[in-house]
């Protein structure tokens, strides 16, 4: 992983993006004779269209999720099914640019460059993904500890969520932990850690031990490993780096205090406010016809109110009224007691089912953004009734209220609606990552992922 503006990005994904930009530029240059045939002007006039073509297609592929971690495990059929709509979207965007800026010669880009570019990108992805799954690029881990956190490290490595593979070669038991890993994977604890790392060709050592104050914790041996060229990583850092999560069960207060991040500077606040206004204004204008149709459909279905106002907890625990399109029956909470939204919730209306699935019900919250109560990207605001419960039952839950809540966020694009305490814990881990590492770069990535969530209806209830 490499870190760009505080956010962890896969090296392979980053190299893939640069490679595909180069491939698309090459495809544009290779098909240039067909563009220029019988037309005045030299090749220098096509530099801008070629660059625009490469950037627009990469943007289209990113919008449809082709740079997400799970794409590394797709087969050729799934990759092809994503490339085709990506290039169709790119073709549409290029034609839009040609109509908006006719003097820039965008109209010269013919269909041949899209065919050539698409075939080249497909071939490049097959080569890169096949190489990424090779055992030669597999990273081998030794985990210090054999408790629940150690087991979660093994599960994360086995899940293959990223572009590169991990394999836990064994666990070094530490006294005082309840064993949660397979006994067959335990390594001899009487050997020095550096010797173990070299014997098993470990690329990294992950420390999952929670209690490090007893004499059984091998501090000196871990120092020898670090000095001997074997990287030593804390489990919390491992989860943050590989899963974009700050795991509550492996979190020490010192990690939040001394771990960096949490940028609340005046510059960051100004940039984020500008992004909020620009993104909300642009999307609000583009979605205005859709919002009018949604309001009409809600009114026709049961004649009830179009909008729904609900108290939510925002930054610094301030309560405000969030505005949404009504997606449930008017008597959804007859007894006055708040309830979690469940899968296939019977309280959801027919129109509500679709606007929740496509996240259209969230669009009126643009007004909350303009009021300064919310950001466009941030943790989802929760109801005060549930916040009181969650703060009592989940450690560090109140940390998410250190910044403004958002219409969309990392937890929204990586996880579905929270319908229980367990779901809230999982979402909190993404929210903590965002609070700690938020930046304009991460906001833009989440915005792109949100487009995919809306297009494919992921996570709706």
TrEMBL record:
Q: Name one Pfam family in it.
A: Bac_transf
Tell me which family the UniProt entry assigns to this protein.
Belongs to the bacterial sugar transferase family.
Chief place of localization: membrane
Residue ranges of the TM segments? 12-34, 46-67, 79-97, 109-128, 277-298
NCBIfam families registered for this protein in UniProt: EPS_sugtrans (TIGR03025), EpsB_2 (TIGR03013)
Q: Output the lineage of the source organism.
A: Bacteria, Pseudomonadati, Pseudomonadota, Betaproteobacteria, Burkholderiales
By what name is this protein known? TIGR03013 family PEP-CTERM/XrtA system glycosyltransferase
Give UniProt keywords alphabetically.
Membrane, Transferase, Transmembrane, Transmembrane helix
């Amino acid at each position: 992983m490499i870190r760009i503006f505080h956010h962890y990005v896969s090296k392979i994904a980053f190299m893939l993006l640069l490679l595909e930009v180069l491939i698309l530029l090459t495809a544009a240059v290779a098909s240039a004779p067909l563009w220029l045939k019988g037309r005045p002007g030299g090749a220098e006039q096509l530099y801008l269209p070629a660059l625009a073509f490469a950037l627009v297609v990469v943007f289209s592929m990113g919008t449809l999720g082709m740079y997400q971690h799970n794409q590394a495990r797709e087969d050729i059929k799934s990759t092809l099914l994503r490339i085709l709509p990506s290039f169709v979207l790119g073709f549409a965007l290029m034609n839009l640019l040609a109509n908006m800026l006719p003097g820039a010669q965008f109209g010269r880009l013919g269909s041949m460059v899209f065919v050539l570019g698409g075939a080249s990108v497909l071939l490049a992805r097959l080569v890169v993904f096949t190489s990424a799954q090779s055992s030669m690029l597999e990273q081998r881990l030794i985990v210090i500890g054999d408790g629940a956190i150690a087991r979660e490290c093994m599960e994360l490595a086995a899940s293959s969520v990223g572009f590169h593979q991990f394999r836990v070669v064994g666990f070094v038991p530490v006294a005082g932990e309840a064993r949660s890993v397979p006994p067959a994977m335990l390594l001899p604890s009487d050997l020095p850690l550096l010797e173990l790392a070299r014997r098993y060709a470990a690329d990294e050592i992950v420390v999952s031990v929670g209690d490090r104050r007893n004499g059984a914790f091998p501090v000196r041996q871990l120092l020898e490993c670090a000095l001997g060229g074997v990287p030593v990583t804390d489990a919390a850092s491992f989860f943050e780096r590989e899963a974009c999560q700050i795991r509550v069960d492996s979190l020490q207060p010192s990690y939040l205090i001394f771990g960096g991040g949490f940028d609340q500077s005046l510059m960051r606040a100004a940039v984020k406010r500008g992004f909020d206004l620009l993104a909300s204004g642009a999307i609000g204008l583009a979605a205005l016809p859709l919002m009018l149709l949604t309001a009409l459909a809600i009114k026709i279905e049961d004649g009830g109110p179009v909008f729904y106002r609900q108290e939510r907890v925002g930054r610094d625990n301030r309560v405000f009224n969030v505005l949404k399109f009504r997606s449930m029956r008017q008597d959804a909470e007859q007894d006055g007691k708040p309830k979690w939204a469940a899968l296939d919730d019977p309280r959801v209306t027919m129109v509500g089912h679709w606007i929740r699935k496509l996240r259209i019900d969230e669009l009126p919250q643009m007004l909350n953004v303009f009021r300064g109560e919310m950001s466009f990207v941030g943790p989802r605001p929760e109801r005060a009734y549930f916040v009181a419960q969650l703060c009592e039952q989940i450690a560090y839950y109140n940390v998410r209220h250190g910044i403004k809540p958002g219409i969309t966020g990392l937890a929204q694009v990586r996880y579905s609606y929270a319908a229980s305490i367990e779901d809230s814990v999982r979402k909190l881990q993404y929210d903590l990552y965002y609070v700690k590492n938020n930046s304009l770069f991460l906001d833009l990535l989440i915005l792109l992922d949100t487009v995919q969530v809306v297009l494919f209806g992921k996570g709706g209830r």
